[in-house]
Design a protein that fits this description.
The chain is an all-alpha fold. The chain has seven helices and no strands. It is elongated and about 60 Å long.
């Protein structure tokens, strides 16, 4: 049995989403200049989230940060509601959600890293070919320009860690529930 239950891990992730939603709504610069974001950005060679030049929408609350706050709050409230159901229902729901979210955030982390400035897929030749075929909007020089930032990478990386931990714990809890049911039927 795990030291921390999957429900506790998921509730912690939901609480983290609520906290992030609050800061994105009222003070997005606090998140952009957070030490974890700066350290992870520098560690993988992503542009540091300079709120004045890279993303001026993060220097003060804006429509974009408010939309992000609403999405994070909705995710948090729905996860908190799902963890408040019966244990079997919650286990079944998150057993299907955890792998999907894990794969999504892993792909987002890989995309952010691969399309960073100077990354393996941020070449000008590919972008020029796509722009010539009118597949990129005017003024966009790379598919991952907005995604290849330290903010996106840090968020996706933390989500990967959290959902991987939840996935492993859910798998153990599901195995224990099946063994308990088999013992009950055997008696």
């Amino acid at each position: 049995m795990a030291l921390i239950s999957a429900t506790t891990i998921i509730r912690s992730l939901a609480t983290l989403h609520l906290i992030a939603a609050y800061y994105f709504l009222f003070s997005p610069e606090t998140i952009a200049s957070h030490n974890m974001v700066v350290v992870l950005s520098a560690a993988v060679g992503l542009p540091l989230p300079d709120t004045e030049t890279i993303s001026p929408t993060l220097s003060q609350p804006s429509a974009i940060s408010a939309l992000l706050a609403c999405v994070l709050a909705l995710t948090a409230v729905s996860d908190l509601a799902a963890t408040s159901t019966q244990a079997e229902v919650s286990l079944l729901y998150f057993s299907s959600q955890a792998p999907i979210r894990l794969v999504f955030f892993f792909a987002l982390t890989a995309w952010s890293y691969s399309f960073r400035p100077g990354g393996m897929f941020a070449g000008r030749a590919e972008s020029a070919a796509l722009a010539a075929e009118n597949l990129l909007p005017p003024g966009v020089d790379s598919l991952g320009r907005g995604i290849g930032s330290g903010m996106v990478f840090s968020w996706a990386f933390v989500e990967v860690i959290g959902w991987f931990w939840a996935f492993i714990t859910l798998r153990d809890e599901r195995r224990e529930a099946v063994a308990k049911e088999a013992r009950r039927k055997g008696d």
